[in-house]
Amino acid sequence: MANQKMIEPDLDFIKEIGVLGGSDLKKCYQCATCSVACPISPDNRPFPRKEMIAASWGLKDRLVGDVDIWLCHNCGDCSVRCPRLAKPGDVLAAIRSYAITEYATPKSLAKMVNDPKKLPVLLAIPAVIFLVLGFILNMFVEPNWLNFSPEGDHIAHHLFFSTWLVDIIFISATIFAVTVFALGIKRFMADMHQNALAEGKTDKEKLEIKGFLQALWRVIPTILRHDKFVECTENNERSTAHMMVLYGFIGLFIVTGIFFVVLYVFGIHGPYSQLNPVKWLANVSGVALVIGSGLMIKKRLDKPEQVSTYKDWALIGLAMALGVSGLLTEMTRLAGAAGLTYFLYFIHLIFVFCLIAYLPYTKLAHLVYRTLAMAYAEYGGRKF
Amino acid sequence: MDKKYGVYICTGCGIGDALDIDTLKGVVEDEGLPVKTHKFLCGKEGIDLIQKDIEDGVNALLIAGCSGRVNCDVFRFEGCVLDRVNLREQVVWSHPRSEFPALTEDQVDDGIHFDRLQMLAEDYMRMGMAKIKRINLPEPYQMEEFSRKLLVIGGGVTGMSAALDAAGAGYDVTLVEKSGELGGYASKMRKQLPIANPYDQLIPPMADTLIQKVEAEPKITIRIGTEVARLAGQPGDYTVTLKKPGERIEFDVPYPLPPEMTVDENGKELDQDTLMERFREYNEGRRDILTIDPNGEKFGAVVLAAGWRSYEPKEDEFAHLGWGTCPDVISNHQFEEMAAKGKVTRPSDGKEAKSVVFIQSPGQGDDKDFEYGGSVLSLVALKHAKYVREDYPDDGKAFIFYQHMRTPGLSENFYKSTQQDPGIFMTKGEVKKVSKNGDSLVVEADDTLLGENVAVRADLVVLALGMVPKTVDEPVVNMAYRQGPAFRDIDLFKGYVDSNFICFPYETQRTGIYAAGPIRRTMTIEESLEDAAGAALKAIQCVECANRGISVHPRSWDMTFPDFFFQRCTQCKRCTQECPFGAIDDDEKGTPKPNPTRCRRCGTCMGACPERIINFADYSIDSIGSMVKAIQVPSEDDYEEPPFRILALVCENDAYPALDIAGLNRFTYSADVRFIPVRCLGSVNVIWIKDALSQGMDGVILLGCKHGDDYQCHMIKGSELADIRVKKIGEALASLALEEERVAQYEVAIDDYDKIPKIINDFVEEIEALGPNPFKGF
After folding, report:
1. pTM of the model
2. Coil, strand or helix: which one is B36?
3. Which of A337, B70, B209, B448 has an alpha carbon 20 to 30 Å from A23's alpha carbon atom?
């Protein structure tokens, strides 16, 4: 049995892929039309044909560490051309979804994030944290970090939820998310390299940090320009929506960074004037986020043949909720509706918490995994 | 009959433009026959012209115009002898005046020039006239005793279904089943493949329903625990002796002497008396085939549905797959038996078998499936995989390693539904080895769709062993035929009973016996049901044709049959031995005893007979021989350089239509060849070839079907026998100082119409290179 690989199909994996949107997986009859149709699949060991049989045979270990599942941008070219309607694009999406959960810890939280019934609980967690922590700290700090009746006519959200309170919670959440990612990435990178070696998808024997980081640097322009996205023929226009959401998040991230530095270094509190360029960036990014996610919702509703799972809706919904709640908070503030704007700010904070703390478990984790996979492919000479 | 002749020449379709019709009429008038022309003979006016003559007493018609293969319905005149002269496809359409110019005034009768095309047409007129003078209207063969009852052999799904279909059509049926109960294999299954839309789920076995229907049908007599000891006689009048399996009775069918017993120690053929003596010794206790069982039952035709058995591997045949050494390696047949009884378990320890591997191909460097396989075995593997999942829905796994996954037609839906099961795994691949590992097995396979060589742990391994037709083991029908009780040459088809499964399904090489179900190829129950209907209809067709004194197939409605002039028979037994359908028996002296309803009218006996005493009413040694003699062979007395004359004897099943199609496509070939259609090359009597050469013709070409293992001959053996006879005639020619190459046979299929001009022209060139026949002009 020297050259034979012992395989043991994992039935639960197959069933789970079905639940995650790959229920047509078993219809595949291995014609490889998908691999030919895919505009970005490499010539050497092309995907997704091999992923289709591996998935229908329940070979979980071979798939979660497969770099190729992340090279796929789910454009749907393969699914449209599949003669058996096995939807390879959606199957790969399901495998990615499974992989995100697989590399996330703790599993119980990952399961909650993927369970629509647990959504109220997940939303309640930040609400409770803010209130409970606020009340507790109110016993020790003056003025109170959580103040339900800020004095004066000046409306500033930090008078309601102190920036200290917000940042203590968000920095903790960020540290949590980064830690979860770090643990996942460690396993992910090792698995990905091992899988690539086993399947002859890399020309590098060892995974060297320096070379990998250089490759990462090289792929960032590709990602920002959405080069792979636009190669798609079926869903080409999808790249615009994705780009808007991505740039919206980047813009808002930059704005948050500036706020943070200005506050803690110069001690200057917001809100900024509407004439401030930083404010322009914030507003433009917020609008981009709302429009981008709105386009995504429309696309998905227009294409019922494409599978849309809870995870897909959860992420788009979160992006939309973040944008809308943020902009509404700002608008109500400018309108001088103090009670309403404070309430909306609370809602907005809850969504921001969800974004940060649940990041390693949601579909948005592709931000990390796909980037790393694309960098790895660049590093390993996998021409996609 | 007193013949009153009428010759009609159609001048339409370009015939009148290319030929000198007046001269052509002169040829007919020289023979003393009345001739009329019409420019549109197949039109109403033309037909009325002929019809009027018939009213005036004309009853022997020669119609010159289009090929006899077209307008058959138009030129059909009851009670008249009729022949058609093919002036269109094989004369004017295939020989344009641009290439075969007419003579100028100076060239006429100059002793140098001649008009090849006109000569061709004139010869065909002469040949046609010679023929209608020598053929007669056939009279149907009437049987003294006649039975419409059908015998169905085999009480499985196919046999029961055939019996029901025949009974539904109003025929009495006797259903004979060897075992003690009806139902066959289908009644021993857990579940059955789908037989109706949407073809995607297993259904309960239908055998019980069929048994109830058969038992309730008053037209069906059921005989279980019974087999056929002998089937004597011919379609419409079979006498069948039935017996209990294994019983020895005097009407057990005798077997012909094996070839080594028919010769003496020096290898010389024994004389008839010694042969009979040995035959009696060899078959002691059994009555001769011509002795009719007085207690036998009468039948008209037979449906053979004896079915199949599972392939039995030879020792060590599949040793690499653990067959014979690992108790948990079983056949699909054994798997079905186990599944019908209960859950899928391991034979070695009775534990649950939750991981089952189905192997569809034995591998070993070959992608062939197991012998006697086919698409059924793919479907059976899918069915069995479903059993595993039925028994263990949560964690049962079924693997199918195949080289071919064949799910024809709508059974694709069944494949799809099986595929959709998360616990069923399929891949193409070559299985290398099955070995023991602890208390379970490991199956190794190379070149799988998974992109690598894999190994799978298995509790149970199932080999897709094939379905061997019962005719591999025994003759089954036990025909009291001189050629023997079994079907001849079925080893060409691995023992499946069939003559040609594409062109003539159900027809065996024995007229009146129609095969259905897995005895003729592996098939599913659904296919068997359809097969049963087909064979039942074929049997009914046979009975009804026999009753009308006409041929069943492939020459359906042919009323002629071979007529023997026994006074001159030398008892050489060639006709008995060479008949492809075993239609002729012979008595103790070796005198042939024809069985006209077994006959397919190919004329192989006519071609075989050295005494030329076998003829048909409208097709005889004399009718064709006279046509040959009617061909004018110009010599040096006529022209300075006389044209060559070549005779072509053309099989009318494939080669003759191919010639017509060549004409239709305006393909051109030599005008020195004269075609005569024959029923089959097997009917070609060498006397025609000898006559042609002795009257100065330069060569003879035979055009017929492919022969050999993958023969296309409609009469199975005809073209092969012709080939043997032509080779023998070569020796005779050599003794006359004639080159053997002057006689040749070529294989032509119906779609070879584009190649046929080259075949003809090449042969003509070859003959021209040999030079003229030295006997010319004598």
Report:
1. 0.89
2. strand
3. B448
